[in-house]
Specification:
The chain is α+β, with helices and mostly antiparallel strands. The strands form 3 sheets. It has an 8-stranded mixed β-sheet. It has a 3-stranded antiparallel β-sheet with strand order 8-9-10, with no helix packed on it. Strands 1-2 form a two-stranded antiparallel sheet. A hairpin with a 4-residue loop joins β9 and β10. The C terminus is likely disordered.
Length: 437
């Protein structure tokens, strides 16, 4: 994050690339930290004209895009926790191969393909892993063909400077209508930039935001590979998810052999809950549900879809543009959707985590007040414990400990049987709970 005096706050920087993308004189450049995959901005102060665009467009800066108020916390109803929306659905791509190859239903990819075929867009901004080096910088693809869109299918759990490409979108004559898929911080940066850059605004047809609690640095990927017993130097290709739901972590070696496991096996769920390897900026995130997107998409982590191994997306249609393209894709049998209670969409996430990120919003804008803790007490009808009062410090402690070399070394030595035993116990408790209900 760039501050008013043009200093860099590494702890608050999301590495989204918006500052580089909007800078009219190329004074801001993102530097790639190869060790952990982070991106940090560097400012050439001799080139900087102090126009303020980088600051005004930064998703970490406490301002909302004009006319798009971010909903702060008032209750734990879906209307407050999800932000503005028109309708909520469950759904998936009707192309079975797309559905199984994707992370959770293939809905986002199906919508992009449909928009391209029907000439609602001529370009889609998507992300794929580096083909030459899975540990290298991710590739930002201004996809002009269906093949290019499909090549980027699936989740990528590593830093992505998506918005650094804003300048190309504005200047390229062959881009007139573009769809953008990104994390909430990317979409917020785009929304703010659109307000200041009218040429950009005119070119964006719609945006798809992916629910996100945290991203990961490359330490997470390296640990995944260590659990798969794969030497990174022998890696030919890699995917975080795919092959049905919830998907497999899959590594292909140079000799053609493959190693894979279910995404949340081998203790990976523990790493997720503890926010291991998450950038510190994720601790200060205010928007886990991509409130500034036209369409928001999430995994269907709810009971009714627990046994669906093909994959289902949860969908939040937020704007007229988002609702329209979903309805048209449904009409033309590209996707299947069904209305779903918005409370279930909230329930698919960790509700308390969403609430606390909403409190982060108030913290960012006004500084944390005692009244925020009263909100926690009222909503959950319980005493505010230490976790409620020092949540950020606690999660930061977890993040530091579980990202340390000592933890990684210990984690690598834990036998798979240990995690399998925990998984079976959790499944047994879940089954008993279901019978009681």
């Amino acid at each position: 994050m760039i501050t008013k005096n043009l200093n860099i706050s590494a702890d608050l920087c999301k590495g989204c690339g918006t500052c580089e993308g909007v800078c009219p004189h190329g004074a801001v450049k993102l530097l790639y930290m190869a060790e952990d995959g982070r991106y940090l901005p560097f400012i050439d102060k001799d080139q900087c004209i102090q126009c303020g665009l980088c600051l005004q467009s930064c998703p970490a800066w406490p301002s909302d895009p004009e006319g798009v108020p971010f909903k702060s916390i008032k209750s734990t109803t879906a209307q407050d926790l999800l932000g503005p929306f028109q309708n909520t659905y469950s759904g998936f791509s009707n192309n079975r191969q797309l559905r199984r190859t994707s992370s959770s239903g293939g809905l986002a990819t199906a919508v992009l393909l449909y928009a391209l075929r029907t000439e609602q867009i001529d370009t889609a901004l998507v992300v794929k892993l580096n083909e030459d080096n899975p540990f290298g910088e991710p590739q930002l693809v201004l996809a002009k063909t269906e093949t290019e869109i499909v090549s980027a299918i699936g989740s990528k759990y590593l830093p992505v400077p998506l918005n650094r490409i804003i300048k190309q979108i504005i200047t390229r004559e062959d881009i007139q209508r573009i769809a953008i898929v990104g994390l909430p911080c990317h979409i917020e940066g785009i929304r703010k930039a659109r307000h200041h850059l009218k040429k950009l605004d005119k070119k964006i047809a719609f945006t798809i935001g992916l629910f996100c609690r945290q991203t990961k640095n490359l330490g997470f990927t390296k640990l995944l590979l260590s659990r798969l017993k794969v030497d990174p130097s022998d890696l030919q290709s890699f995917s975080y998810r795919g092959g049905g739901w919830p998907g497999y972590v899959t590594a292909k070696m140079n000799d053609g052999n493959m190693s894979k496991c279910l995404f949340f096996d081998e203790g990976f769920l523990l790493l997720w809950l503890l926010q291991s390897f998450a950038p510190k900026a994720c601790m200060f995130c205010c928007d886990p549900t991509a409130e500034y997107a036209d369409i928001s998409v999430a995994d269907a982590w709810i009971e009714e879809f627990a046994n669906d191994k093909e994959g289902v997306s949860l969908i939040v249609a937020r704007t007229n543009e988002g609702e329209s393209i979903l309805n048209n894709a449904l009409r033309d049998s590209v996707i299947s959707t069904q209305s779903i209670d918005p409370e279930k969409v909230v329930g698919s996430q960790i509700k308390r985590a969403i609430l606390r990120k909403k409190i982060n919003y108030r913290t960012k804008v006004t500084a944390l007040k005692p009244s925020d803790h009263k909100i926690l007490k009222t909503i959950f009808n319980q005493k505010v414990d230490i976790r409620g009062m020092i949540h950020l410090k606690q999660m930061e402690s977890f993040r530091k400990i579980t990202s340390s070399n000592l933890f990684v070394t210990a984690f690598q030595k834990i036998p798979s049987a240990f995690f399998n035993k925990i998984k079976k116990k959790a499944q047994k408790r879940k089954a008993l709970s279901s019978r009681v209900k």
